[in-house]
Every structure is written in structure tokens, then in C-alpha cells.
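Researcher: Batch entry, complex prediction.
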Amino acid sequence: MPWKTANYRNVNENPCNMCMPMGGILPFKGIEEAMVIIHGSQGCSTYMRRHIAEHFNEPIDVGSSSLNEKGTIYGGAQNLFQALDNIRKVYNPRLIGILTSCLAETIGEDVEGMARDYLKKQGLDNFPLVGVSTPGYGGTHSEGYWLALKKTVAGLARPTEKHGGINVIVPNLSPADIREIKRILEIMDVKYTLLPDISETLDRPIARPYTKIPPGGTRVEAIRCMPGAVATIQFGITVEDNISPGHYLQSEFGVPLYNLPVPMGVESTDMFVGLLAEITGGSVPGVLKLERGRLLDCMVDSHKYNAQGRGAVFGDPELVCAVVRTCAENGLYPAVVATGSGNSGLKEILGPVLVECGQDVCYLNEADFMRVRTSCRENGVNMAIGHSDGKFLTESEGIPLVRMGFPIHDRVGGQRLLSVGYTGTTNFLDRVTNSLLEHKYKNYRATMYREFYREAGK
Amino acid sequence: MAINEKMIEEILNKYPAKVKRNRKKHIVIRDSAQENQEIEANTRTIPGVVTNRGCAFAGCKGVVLGPLKDMVHIVHGPVGCGYYSWLTRRNKARAEDPEKNFLAYCVSTDMQESDIVFGGEKKLTRMIDEVVEILKPNAITISATCPVGLIGDDIQAVARAARAKHGVNITAYSCEGYKGVSQSAGHHIANNGLMEKIIGEGDLEEPPSKYTINILGEYNIGGDSWEVERVLNDIGYEVQVVMTGNGSYEKLKNAHVAQLNLVQCHRSINYIADMLETKYGTPWLKVNFIGIRATIESLRNMALYFGDEALIKRTEEVIERELAEIEPQLEPYKKICSGKTAFCFVGGSRGHHYQGLYEELGITTVLAGYEFAHRDDYEGRDVLPNLKTDADSKNIPDLHVTPDEGRYRLKIPVERMEELKKIIPLNDYKGMINEMVDGSIVVDDLNHYETDEFIKVLKPDLFSSGIKDKYIPQKMGVPTKQLHNYDYSGPYAGFRGAINFARDVAMGFSTPTWNFIVPPWKHNPLLEGSIEQCSDDTCVKEVGA
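Model: C-alpha cells for the complex:
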């Protein structure tokens, strides 16, 4: 392979991930009446707004402290304070998140200290101002997402009387997925705080009048009360403890943590539903049993097609795990499992799941698409599942791509993709199966010709 | 609805006093009775106003360098900036040599924390080696993101060394995001680099044909440049290079041979246009290929410049033929669009250019503005001598070029040049404000809050801007047209482009979608009744009761 040079990681060709502050924006978009500012050059917030807007098809307001050359010498506190003043005046938010960029971090800005100074200067004792240090070189958007969540919880949570509710902490899933998780919680009669809740804010109905901050999101007061929950369910088996909000609530406030896989696929959804029943002492409602039955029926119908797929799965570590487990349940075994994140736990987590698939699995972390592509070619992959940037696998290798995760910028409806719970899994498997079938029919004659036709006499 | 100072005042009252004073200077109500209406532009963005502006890196790598197809554009920095500028402007390219089109590649040094601490020069050097070995591009650019300048990586030295080692043109651009006040700084930095290190590298001494031109400031978004070139080639022009849409190193290095430079986007490229004149004696002509009338005028001005009877005749023939093709197609769209109003807020030239096309469709532009333009783009180049250089523009080095001894040629005699200047915009641009109708509003650096408020006051029928702001009006029930990436449509330039544009805009008005926003129960009450003399009891009778 011409791509394999001795010291590969000098060049990142077609990255499989974005930078830390990008991931940090998303949780703040799922908190009620919250705003977020990036402390750094204004290009950071402009680029990220552009990408998030294109995925969700929603306005994404992110402020910037618009640092310039002067700020790099004298520090950016003045710019940041002015940005906070203006955001408060125009948007009147109930919480503001401040993320840092490469620039702010390289010149050594202490964002948490600056947030404290601002509150003191303004005489705002109780205003939740959450500073998160997210240098672009510090990790991928996945780490930025979790760190912003953890800092939010750490900044807001306070000792609370037990209130009997459950904390549900979710990774970067689609608004449709969040709605499904909430529906399951509601039909099981669970009192919950789900964080972050982008189900309404980033999939906003057309409704009048237009408000600058979309309605919905986790209430600030509910986040403050998370320590009073009887348990935390966090869909974050790949999340390291130092950036895990669930782990924080457990170690600081003794809230028992159940770290579960994303409830996708039969087994993982069973775990989630079963755990809810156990915690609440309730039973699994009939409607969920019906949905489970339908999912199994879907799997029985489609397993024969799925078995012909050799998959490449890439994206955020948490979602990669969920997709791999779901596919493997129905006999579609992944040959390539990749993430742009430095998270090295994939093999450990997925190894036992894939032990019976009877084929080698290539695990790539810190992957770029050149590496993914080479591995796909070497491993005979015929199906890719991940975000839009995998489109080059289709263009250059002819491998169909089932779009899933973030970002999806070359198709509409990324925000409406439903893939969790029994019903979501059914939808997801149908999307995968149909892509396999479409690919098969599209290439049927060519394949037959290639495999069976011989010129007379040869 | 006509707007007045008082309404603007009310909108700005939401800001803190200092911000209000600042923003007020960026908003002008057009009044042709006043001579030289001034607007503040190209000044620092106010922190926290949710601007649509980008940064120097975006202007340099994203806009100017990015479209050059046979080069690999390395982003030296953490991975984000490379990712975000990866094919996001829809600048299309078709490669002469299919092995040498690298536009689909995003190549980044993906700096990690250790690189920030210990420096990234070695990594960059090794990366260039790999890029040369693996991809074999015709040339390489290196663009810096924020941390690079701060940690002191000398990318210019790395580029020089690599160039000596590989014998490939490798140029570095110190376009860290914090430089200047917007992406405009990046255009300037990119222009300097191309001028200094690439243009003139080629060994062509004579123009390949009688009418050889360059098109500057055309980025081939949605294939615009191809539509323009179709017509130009048909008339008999030879396009040496387009800067930079569908452009290439191979063509660019011989840009010095052109007899005329056309300037489409004045903001992003006037630096190079001026420098090319100083160095090679090539005048530039401000053109506008957006809109039918503007296209015709540009074509006629070009023919006048060359002053050749056969060329003038051929120009008229082509115009006539093109008009015959498109005019019947345009009629139905005009009927749909006529009488409508629009906002037109784009980067640095389209905010002006599209107004003419709107007018031809019967649409009045009631608000227009630029994200990152300078005063000369609003008020015309006459204002240039009055512009003060501030600290931010001083940070971008001005390149001082001198006439090239071997290659400087006067393209036309001085006297003729002076005559022509009186009738065609040679080396001149009159700006946007001049062409706007009285009572319309000009807003520099429009932000999310103001977008929202101006829509409420002016209630436009169409909002045209980019992806970051288009969802606000859509949520408010106003159709939009993206003028940055054309909503994945296009081309919109030239004659046939005008039809595409008319079709796309008319579709926004005529789709039934908007009619469903107000549900039927708001139009027709579910209850019918009348007010009667009644006590506290209900006096509303249900339908059919």
C-alpha cells in the first residue's frame, strides 16, 4: 500500500474527528435558556456554528470573544468580559458556558478563574457561568463534549435532599434519539433529569413567535439537584473517569452510577429497561414488550441479508460501540472499527462482543480516513456506518455508507435519525439492510458478469 | 415598510450604550441627496454579538488558497481548522490531469499538546516529505492556525528548506486566526504570498492568444466560473487563470502574461490586481457576471478595452444569441418574483452583485451588507486616500512590488488608458452604496440579533445570506436563498446562471410549504357563534348546534 509510510502520524489526511470546543458547544445547547461563548479568535465559533447548523438545520448562536493580536499579548479578559456583557444583555440567558480555543489556551488563559472574576466584578453570586478548558489540541470533539458536561455538573450540583428521581446522562445522540429515551422513561413512570436534552432545542418545530434561544433543554434547577437522585444512568461506557459527569456525581455525592452502553440493539436496550424496572420497582410495560417483539421480528427477517455485510464502523467512540454491538447481534460483523478519538478502550470493550464472529477485526484509534480506507480495502469491507465524511469511502471504494452520528452535512435529517430503543434499533437495522440490498441490486449484473462470464474457449 | 432612524435606534437600544454607539456607525439609510454617505467597516468585531465573520485563516486557506486544485494545502495546527475548511465553500474544480486534483483532501499536522510545548516544525517538515512522496502535488501551501505563531514555529523557514530539498514550490502563509479583524486579513496575506512566490514563476513570455485575460476574485462556487468562461471563450478570449476557482499552480505561475485582469470580487483580490499592474503593467477592469445586465455591461467593457472591431461585433452577436435563449425562460419566473423584497447580506462582493439580478427579477433589495468588506467596497475607491491605517491593518504586511524589468509592458498607451477610464471601470470600483435605492438600509457586519430585528421591522419576502443565519428567517416563515454556497445549486453567474437563480428563488416563493404554517383552525374557527344578550352562560353556539 502506498499510503503506509514509516511514520504515519505526521500527516492526518481527511480527519475522522473535530476539535474539542466543537464537542463542548453541544451540551450547552441542551440546557434550558443557555448560551455559550468561545474564548478565542472569532473564526472558531463561526466555523463550528456553520457545521452544527448544517447538521441540525437550526440556527446555532455561539458567541465569541473575538480575540485579536492585541489580546494575544495582553490577555483576553477584557474581550471575554465584554462578550459576556453583550450576550447577557441581548440573550438574557440563565446559564453561560465558556469554552476556550487553541489561542486562549496557548497564551495561558485561566478560563475558570476568569469566570469567577467576572461574577465577582458584576456582583452576580448565583449566576451559573461554566468555564471549560477545551484547547483544540487537547482532544477530539468527543472529549470536549464529555468535559463540558462534567464541568457543568460540577459547577452547578449542590447537596440536595434525596428526591427519588434518576439522572440520565446521554452522549451526543440525535434529538430523535433523546425523545425516544424520554418516551421510554415516561412510559415506565420514571422521574428523571436527562442531561443534556437537545430533543427540542436542536430539532425545533416551526412555531411563532420566534425566540432567540429555543425552548426546551434541561432546566438549570434540575442540574443543581442531580446529587439528590437515587441513581445516575450514564450512556458512557467509553468515557474516562476524569471527564465523566456520572463518576463525578458518584464520587462527590455518592449517587450510584450505572454506566450503560447506549440503549441500541436488543441486549443494551434490555439492560436499560431492565435497570429502570429494577430501580423503580416497576414492571416493563406491555407496549415496550410489543416493540421488543417487533424488533426481533425485524431481525429474523433481515439477518440473512445482514450476514452478507462486512462492516466498517467509525465515529464517536460511544456511538461506535453501540453500532458495533447492534450489528453484531444480527450477524453483521464489523471488520474495521475506527474512531478519530485517542480513546483506546474500543478493543477492550468490543473484543468480548466480537469474539465469536470468527474473523479478524481491525481496531483503529486516532484514525483518519486514509487509514480507514486502506483497512476497508484490505479487509473486504462492503458496508460503512458512520458520519458524512465517510462519503469518500463510497466515492473512492464504492462502499455504501449508512449515515449515522455527527456530523451529517450532505444529507438532511441527521437530527431526525432514530436509532435507540427497540423501535429505533428496528429503524436502524432497516436502514442498514436496505443499503445492503440496494448495493446488491445495483451491482447484481456487474457482479454476475465478473464472476461467471468466461469468453468462449477460455 | 420604510425604515427611519428612530426604528434603527429602537433596535440598537437593546445593546449596552457603548455597543450601541459602535453599531450605529455600521448602519446607514441610503439617501442619494447626501454626497458620500459614510459607513464604518473593517473595524474590530464587538465580542459577544454573534457575528457572521470568520478569521484570517478562513480567508487565506479557506477562500483564496483552497480552490487551487493541483496543490496540496497543508494546515499546520490542531485538527479542527483543517476539518472545518474541508470542502466547505463548494468551490468546484475539474482537473486537467485527473491525478492532480487534491481538493477533496484535508491535510493537517494535527498538532497535539506535546507539539504545542515542544514546537511543530519537525513534524511539519516530515509531513511535507510525506505529502511530496505520496501525493506528488505540483505545489504545496502551508497555512498556520492560531497556536503556530504564538509558539514561534517558523513556517517560512520550513517552507524554504523543503522547497530546496524537494524542488517543489512550497509557500507558507502566516494567517493565524487572530490576525486582522475578519477573514479579509487572510485574503490579503494569501494575495501577498501568491504574488511574491508563485505568479511569474512560469516561463511564458508572451500571451497564448490575442485576447488573454485572467479572472480575479472568482471562486467557481457551484460552477459559476465555468458558465462565465463558456461565454468568454465563445467570444474569443483565452482565460489564462481564474483566481482561484478551478485555478491551478500550473496556470497561476504564468498569470503575468495576461493583457487584462478582470476583478469579480473586489474585496478579496484587489491587492493582487493592483500589484499585477505595478509589476507587469496589466490594468484591471471591475466586472460583475452576476445578473444579465451586469454581464452584458462587463462583456461590452472588455471589448471596449481591447477596442477591436471584430471583437466588439462578436461580443454583440454572442449577447444577442444568449439573450434569445434565456429571455423566454425568464418570463414565468419574473411573474412570480415581481414586487417582492429581499435582504442581501453576503461576504465582500455578492451583497452588491446580487442586487442587480434581484432587480431584473422585479425584487427590491431593502437591506444589504457585507460581512467583512472595507469602506471602499461600500463607498467606492474614491474613499481610499481618506482611509486611516489602524493597528489591525498594520499587522498585515503590505507587499511593495516594483516593475519587473523583463516583463513589464504597457498593455495600452497611457492616453488611451485615460480615455477608457472615463467610460469603463478600469482600476476602479464605485462600491455598493451608490447603486442602492433611497430608503434601503446598508448594514456592515450584520449579526444574529439585528437579523432577527430587521426581519421583524422590514418583513422581507426573501432573505439571502449564508447557512449560519438562514435558519432564523426560515423559522420565522421567510424563504431564504443561500448566496455563499447556493444551497447546493448553481451556477448562478452569467446568462444561464441567471435562469438557475430565478428558478431557485421563484421556487422559494411558490412552494406550497409556507401556506401550511398557519393551521386551518387559525383561519377558520372551529366554533361559530355570535354575541347575544346573555348572562354569564356561554353565548357561543357550537357548529351545527
